[in-house]
Amino acid sequence: MTATQKLFPGIFFLIVFGTVFCNFHVFVDAELNSKWYWLYTVIPLCGLLFLFVRQKQRNKIGYSVYLLIFLFIYCLFRVTPGAYFVSFLSISICFFLIYYLTGKSKQDQTFKWFSASIVTVSFLQALYGIAQYIGLLDSNENFKIVGSFDNPAGFASVMVLSLPFVLYFLDSTNRQIKNTALLIGAIICIATIMSGSRTGLLALLILCILYIIKRHRTYFAKIAAWKKIVILCSFAAILAGLYFTKKDSADGRILIWKCAFEMIREKPVFGHGYKSFRAEYMLYQARYFEENPESNFGVLADNVKHPFNEFLLLIVEFGIIAFLILLLLAASLIRSYLKNKNKESFVLILCLAAVFIFSCFSYPFQYPFTWLIVGFCISYLSSTLYNYQERSPNKFRIFKHAVALLSIVLLSFNMKNMYYDRKWNQAINQIKHGTTKELLSEYENLHTHFHNNPFFLYNYAALLNNMRYWDNSAEIIRSCEIYLNDYDIQMLRGDNYKKRHHLMQAKVCFELASQMCPGKFAPLFELVNVYDSINQPIRAKELADHIINMQVKVPSATITAIKMRMIKRVEAE
C-alpha cells in the first residue's frame, strides 16, 4: 500500500462527514448549499489526488457503465441551453468522479473504510438529533429533530441509508464490533422514530424485515400460511397507521401526484425539460382547482416545488425514455447482485432499496449524501459482475488526464458559485439593517451571475418592490417566471400591479394565486380590496363572506387579523 492509499480512510471520513454536517452560515440556505459545496470541493480534489495512485491499468466494462453514459447524454440534450447547463454538468461530473474514484480505490479494505465512515458519521448525527429532541441542543422552530439539516427528511434519509452499513458490521465475527454495531443501530433506529418522518419509518421497517428474512430464510420458508397472512396484515396495519398519523399531508401528496400525472400526460415521451417542474407545476394545480372548485383538496394545497417522488420528477422533466433507462440500470444492478451474492453486495442492494423507498415518497436526491451513497453502491455493484480489461499505458494516461480536467472544471464552477453565494448572503444580511442604493447596486452586480436563479430573482424583485421600483420589480418577476412560477411569484406580481394602479392585471394575478392555493387567505383579501377599488361592492362582499367562513388549516395572527377585518367590513354595510 502506497502512502497515498494510506490516506483513504481519512479521505472517506472527511467526504462523508462534510456531506452530513457542513453548515456554514456565510452561504444562503446554509444547511443545504454548504453540503453541496463541500462535496463539489472534496471530490475533485480527490480526483486530482488519485492521479498519483499507482495501480494496475484497467477499467470496468459493463452494462451499467454504458447505461449511465446513455442516460447522461440523453438528459444533457433535455437541459435548457444556458439556463441550467452548469448545474446539470456539475452534478454529472461529481457523480462520475464518485463512480470512478470508488472503482479506482477498490481494494479488500475499501468497503470497510467507507462503511466505517458512514456508520461513524451517522452515529454522530443520530446523537445530534436526539440531543435536539430532548432539548440539549437547539433545533429550528418548526421541528424537534432536524440534525444538521433544515427539516426531518434530510436527517431521516441519513439515518436510514446508513443502516445497511451498520448491519454489515452486525454480521462481524468479532464480538466487540458486533455489540458496538448493535448499539449504534439501536440509536439510529430511535433517532429515526423520534424524527417523525413517515418515509423514514417505512424504510426502516422494510430494511429490518429484509435483513431478518435474509438471516433466517430457512425459518421463514417453514412458517405456516396463516402466520404469513398475519404478518402481511400487521404490515398493512402499520402502513395504514403511517397514513392516518398525518392524513392531511398524505392527501396533499395525492393531489400533487394527480397534477404531476397531468403534466406527464401532456408530454409523456421526452418530458417538459430539466427543472421544468417548479416552473410549470403550480399552473397545473391552479387548473385543477379551476376545474374542480369544490374539491376537498383545496384546504390542503400549498406551494409545491417538488412532487415528493423522484421517479415522477424524472418522468415529468425527462420523460418515459429516461425512466426506462433507469429501469434497465436497476435491472443490471440486480443482476450483478444475483450473480455475486455476498455480504457486501447484500448491504449495497439494501441501501439502494432504501433509496428507492425514499424516492417514492420524498426528495432524497436534494441532498449530496444520497448521491455519494448511490455512486458508491452502483460502482461497487457493477464492478463485481464484469471482468477487468487491460488498458494500454497511453489510453490509461488519457483517461487520467480526462479525470484531472473534469476535476478542475468542477472546482472552477464550485469556487465561482461559492464566491457569489457568499456575496448574496452578505447582501441579504444588509437588508436587515435597511435598504439603501448601495445595496441595490450590489444586487444589480449579482444579477449578472444569478440571472437564471429563481430564488435570487424573487428576492431581487421583492427588494425592488420594497424600494418602490415597481416597474423594475415587474421586469425581474417576468424573467423569474421562466424558472419558477408559483403562489409567491403571483402574489408579488399582483402587488407590483396594484401599486402601479393596474388593478385589472393585479386581479388576474391574485385570482391565479388563489387558484394555486385555494386555502390561502392573502390573495382573497387582496381581491376584496381590488373589487372595492374597481367599484364592485357586491363581489367584494361575497368574497368577504367566503373568507369569514373559510376553514383554517394552520391558525396564525395574520389569518385572525384578515378574518376580523372582513367581519368589520361586512358589519359596516
- How many β-strand runs? 2
Described by strand count, sense and barrel closure, the largest sheet is: 2 strands, antiparallel
Number of helices: 24
Distance between the terminal alpha carbons, to the nearest Å?
Answer: 87 Å
- The dominant shape is globular
- The oligomerization state is single chain
Task: List the uncertain runs.
Answer: none
User: Which whole number gives the mean pLDDT?
Assistant: 87
Strand order, largest beta sheet: 1-2
Please give the share of residues in helix: over 70%
> Which strand-content bin applies to the residues?
under 5%
The helix/strand series, from N terminus to C terminus, equals: HHEHHHHHHHHHHHHHEHHHHHHHHH
User: What is Rg?
Assistant: 26 Å
Helical/strand content category:
mainly alpha
Folded structure, characterized:
This protein is an all-alpha fold. It is built from 24 helices and 2 strands. Strands 1-2 form a two-stranded antiparallel sheet. The mean pLDDT is 87.
Features:
mainly alpha, 24 helices
Topology (SSEs and partners):
Layout: H1 8-21, H2 30-49, E1 58-60, H3 63-77, H4 85-104, H5 110-133, H6 152-170, H7 175-195, H8 198-215, H9 217-221, H10 225-245, H11 247-266, H12 276-291, H13 310-339, H14 343-361, H15 368-383, E2 388-390, H16 393-431, H17 437-447, H18 454-466, H19 470-480, H20 487-499, H21 503-516, H22 522-533, H23 537-549, H24 557-572
Antiparallel strand pairs: 1-2
Helix pairs in contact: 1-2, 1-5, 2-4, 2-16, 3-13, 4-15, 4-16, 5-6, 5-7, 6-7, 6-8, 6-14, 8-14, 11-12, 11-13, 12-21, 13-14, 13-15, 14-15, 16-17, 18-19, 18-20, 19-20, 20-21, 21-22, 22-23, 23-24
